[in-house]
Design a protein that fits this description.
alpha+beta, SH3 type barrels, 3 domains, 17 helices, 8 strands, rod-shaped
Length: about 425
């Protein structure tokens, strides 16, 4: 039985029951519309089952990733929602021609439905586009999530304007013209997205931050890896696994440290000082030189330097009975030469990067001897172990040069003084 025959049967039945010809004809039209609507819904689910099943098989068997992104983000699911809307728009004028008011409401509701489906489909497509883009290497240096979010806001804004214009029966251009009066309010409402967009453009253009970078921002308490850069926020997973959220624009307006340069250089800096007690610095006696010559790493250095200094002193008839006359080797100078030789023979140190063993300005806490080098290992745990091994060795070696490490007196020192005085 066709749709027309069902409608005629309903009309005849109502006429036989005593209803008027006009009422029976109207009910026939409504019946036609309801039956057509039911057929559209059933047809939609049949088409959806077939199309989605086919799309799923194609996406799973294909070697490309873009079709998987479209399927996983339900782009096809959303696009199929256009089918019932278009079908209702087509049949409503034929089935509800006797009810202009109802027809007008059906058409308007269908149009609103199509606007919402359009926004949903565009949003799903942008999500799929983001997933596709993440598969390219350039995504690591040029994130686009913020730009896509801006585009989504624009689409939603346009959709809202269209919906309002349809509800009040005014042209969208009329509403857009009235937005000028609310520009200050809009700027206040969308302040963070606007600042985020500006900050995102500057971050991307200047290559300031990428997902995966290790950044430190003391103001926000962030110290970890950037996991996401969006329109308004940047998410940082700290080393204790907590998440810090930073406004995107803050990365432009405030200072922060990006450790990407260290990671790309292939080395990680070790910069630490040991304070030497100034009272322990002295000229080396022949006995101390003979003792230090036994240290294989500096044997050649001591012998070569001693010949050079002896030749200098002899050439100038230096009186060696006074040590400050002429030039002499000091235990601190030889110790620094040993540090340099020890570090150069350490397989974990990069010799092609900055390499310094130097004295800093003497202070009330002694003479700082600073080691400024780069380790080959960048991983935190391995780096810390290399650094600890170096300074364990350095601290244990200092007494061999008859030097003392400066250290503020502890409780044990004061107890030792008291015990000595009692004796």
């Amino acid at each position: 039985m066709t749709l027309l025959q069902i409608g005629i049967k309903v009309k005849d039945l109502l006429t036989n029951w005593g209803f008027s010809e006009n009422f029976s004809g109207g009910m026939r039209d409504i019946t036609d519309f309801i039956i057509a609507l039911a057929i559209i819904v059933i047809a939609y689910y049949i088409v959806k089952y077939v199309v989605i099943g086919l799309a799923r098989r194609i996406a799973r068997r294909s070697s490309t990733t873009w079709d998987d992104a479209l399927y996983d983000n339900r782009v096809i699911h959303k696009a199929l929602l256009f089918v019932p809307g278009l079908a209702i728009s087509f049949i409503a004028p034929f089935t509800l021609d006797e009810f202009p008011v109802a027809l007008n409401w059906v058409v308007k509701i269908t149009q609103l439905y199509m606007v919402f489906v359009t926004m949903m489909t565009i949003n799903a497509f942008l999500n799929a586009l983001y997933d596709i883009y993440q598969g390219f290497e350039v995504s690591k240096s040029k994130p686009i999530k913020g730009y896509l979010q801006v585009f989504k806001i624009v689409v939603i804004g346009i959709g809202i304007i269209v919906v309002i214009s349809m509800l009040i029966g005014k042209s969208p251009i009329y509403l857009l013209g009235g937005l000028g009066a609310f520009s200050a309010v809009l700027l206040l409402i969308f302040r963070d997205p606007i600042l985020g967009l500006v900050g995102g453009i500057q971050i991307s253009a200047n290559d300031m931050v990428r997902p995966g970078d290790w950044i430190v921002m003391d103001k926000s308490g962030a110290d970890g890896v950037v996991t996401e850069i969006s329109l308004t926020t940047v998410k940082v997973q700290n080393w204790d696994k907590t998440i810090t959220t930073i406004p995107t624009y803050s990365l432009v307006s405030d200072s922060f440290v990006n450790w990407r340069g260290m990671e790309e250089s292939g080395g990680r800096r070790i910069k630490r000082s040991i304070n030497i007690d100034m009272n322990s610095v002295k000229f080396c006696s022949p006995e101390l030189l003979d003792k230090l010559r036994k240290i294989s790493l500096i044997t050649d250095y001591i012998n070569g330097t001693e010949k050079e200094l002896s030749a200098y002193n002899v050439a100038r008839n230096i009186d060696n009975s006074v040590l400050v006359n002429g030039r002499r080797q000091t235990n601190l100078g030889i110790f620094m030469a040993y540090l340099s030789a020890y570090l150069r023979n350490n397989p974990n140190i990069r010799l092609d990067m900055t390499f310094l063993v130097r004295q800093l300005q003497p202070k009330e806490s002694g003479i700082p001897v600073e080691i400024y080098i780069f380790s080959k290992e960048q991983e935190w745990a391995k780096y810390e172990k290399i650094q600890a091994d170096i300074f364990d060795h350095v601290l244990a070696s200092i007494p061999e040069f008859e030097l003392l490490v400066f250290q503020n007196p502890s409780g044990a020192d004061f107890r030792q003084i008291g015990f000595t005085q009692e004796l």
